[in-house]
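Purpose: get a first structural picture of the assembly so the mutagenesis plan has something to point at.
Setup: two entries, given in the order below. No constraints added.
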Amino acid sequence: MDARHTASASAPLNRRQLLKAGAGSAAALSIGFALPLSPRQAQAQASNTFAPHAWLRLTPDNRVTVLCGSSEMGQGVLTAIPMLLAEELDADWRLVGVEQAPADGRFNNPMFGMQATGGSTTVRAHWTPLRQAGAAAREMLVAAAAAQWQLPAAQLRTERGHVLGPTGQKVAYGALVAAASQQLVPSAPKLKASADFKILGRPTRRLDSPAKTNGTARFGIDAQVEGMVIAVLSRAPFEGAKPKGMDEAAARAVKGVVQVITLPFGVAVLAQGYWAAQQGRQALKLEWDLSAKPEQAALSTAQVSALLQQGAEQASAVAVDQGNLKHAVAESSKTLNARYEVPYLAHACMEPLNCLAWVQADRAEVWTGTQGSGPTQMVVSQVAGVPQANVKVNTSLLGGGFGRRFAHDVTIAATLLSKISGRPVKLIYDRADDMAAGFYRPASVVQFEGALDAQGRPSMLRADVGSPSIMAASGFMKIPENGVDSMAVEGLADQPYDIANLRIAYGRAEPGPQVWFWRSVGHSQNAFFLESFIDEMAHAAGADPLQFRLAALSKQPRLQAVLRLAASKAGWGKKLPKGVFHGIAVAESFGSFVAEVAEVSIGKDGVPKVHRVVAAVDCGQTVNPLTIQHQVESAICYGLSAALYGKITHKDGRVEQSNFHDYPVLRLSEMPKVDVHLVASQEAPGGIGEPGTPPLAPAVTNAIFAATGVRVRQLPIDPALLIKKG
Amino acid sequence: MSIQLTVNGQATSLDADPDMPLLWALREDLRLTGTKFGCGMALCGACTVHLDGQPVRACSTPLSAAAGKKVTTIEGVGASKTGRAVQASWVKLDVPQCGYCQSGQIMSACALLAAKKKPSDADIDQAMSGNLCRCGTYNQIRVAIHDASATLSQKGA
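Result (structure tokens, whole complex):
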């Protein structure tokens, strides 16, 4: 491992700035790009492998193995990353395999400057470097064949894992392993024109499906080493709470329990197996002293709401202030006000959080499904007190991530427990631990004011947001000097409509629970806020919600295009079956543009049923359209779970939800039909893991308004408000 | 106390707490980690296995309830025609995303197809709605079940 590379992972980071910088163009990413080479000449580590750089291993059996430094959490990187390299290598896709890369600075995500997966960045960040990596390897193989045939390289071409000569010569890549390894690695390999792509842009089945259907796929929770013990951890309800009483002897008396360890933030029971550990925890009868922070001990959801309201009312950190709001109001034909609110949300990954850690004298090893292999290495190094170079991170498959697995709480705890006990410790959160551990999507309140001009066009928008700060909570970002957490206002501060008079302000409110990134981050609530309020404005103007948006998006051709496509595919404005209504919403996030039309009916009990969602997506050039379709569908399911059911609430300082009975998520019988339509595009690739989520909630609630005349201004949707009166 | 059961066709003897859920016997004692822990309360279906052919939630089934019975897990389900067909349809239709819930999904789907060769959408709703998926693979699951059903009837199974 190259220590210089790993050291760069500790550079100060601003995820948002990095995202912004990287989102501009693929060309920007190639600045400063260097193939992750060690020596000037590609020296094969073993003479039977062509490995010109960290990403590729080609063996004489013609097999191509691509190393993927990004974490697989369902979003398909274990397929997309090999596709990028294989395209420019002109590999035979049937012979391409993939391996999870170790934590190693050479696999840093260029958009983050660390080895991390999130922000829908993997394809965007690797679009250029991975293709360059494939092209460089291809040129070396060509050069090797050219030397053998004594022909100029320009006369050779490549196809499906072979180099071909002008007069019928043909050699498989595998036969060139040794010779290609002697070639210089080209510093500026030539990339294909997109018209010549044979792999990119074609629907391609996932490489990890077989393992995920026969029980052999290994997630963090499946890791095992000889001598390991299982730990469960009762976490303090909030920082500062202390154990008041516990029966350690009773816990230790449980068969299989080996140790009880008190950490600064909780009490763990270590045992020979999970069941014994849980029995031990029950026997412990742990009670907490909450007196250190009376306000936290008394925290309720009503209090959270009041604090957010106060934040919004006192919002003084100004993100955008342009035009003259008073003047716009004076000149307006109509004004409107509305308050919107969303709750904290848990990620509720199917795989409860877990980490196996083994700290030994001067080294440490962890096995975990993490979105941040690089940061994990750093954190374990600090907690274990061993040099970073001596920390091995085994990144397993992630049973869901959604941002939650970018946090290190479980890794820190497991590492501490291993260090203290001297054993390999696999810490497993049970569902209730997982749900109560914090790292929630921030609850948020927005107070809107809007105005329409004499022609019924939106002329003024004021938004005051009250919300906790992810930037402050992240530990690796800082709120900038203007006081605006850009994530709390993303989607609002950069709102796309032609509104000349605009003021977007942020008031930080910190009720206490730890907040974190959640699929689509600030867009997850701000698209609901904005696209609902825009719908309110459209209705106030007496306009069709689609036409109102199109007219006010005159500088946003890509948003207009997805709106038109979604509307046309959904049959917007056409007659619908009795009781079924349409709602539409659109949002740009993570470099992609998505419009969604929801088809909704309301049951007698007020429960909305979403029959179908039609999505139109412009995510630029595509890698794997099959993944795109499934990611958009996935993002819709995730957004619909939140819109219908999602809320983490507090009472007496504790989280009220503990499992899927009180934190319901969408079931198969509730899943709408989803149609995904792609806009053909030659633009730089956009992200795809998240952008399908933001427009979902407002598309549904706008349909509910069309159905009932009730404007849903708070999530999750309360069916009691939708019961037909009279 | 020793408990006898058959797991994926193999006679097995376990010296474990009879009250311990079958899930942990499979995952820890037998190291069959394909069966997943999701909720511990039979609310999510990730731990679904077959007990004498019937789908059960291993997280809430005491080991004692499996005594003398046949347990089939995701590691063994491919030994049956139905299991093979379902696994093949899952790959063909690109069903898994994160994949964590898919062992349970497949076990529930196999039990459905064993009971009903040509399930309707309503049958699928009923049989599969206890298996949660946070990645939203539900529509692909539905199509894959119909696809496996078609495969099985083609082969005259």
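The longest strand of chain A covers residues 592-602.
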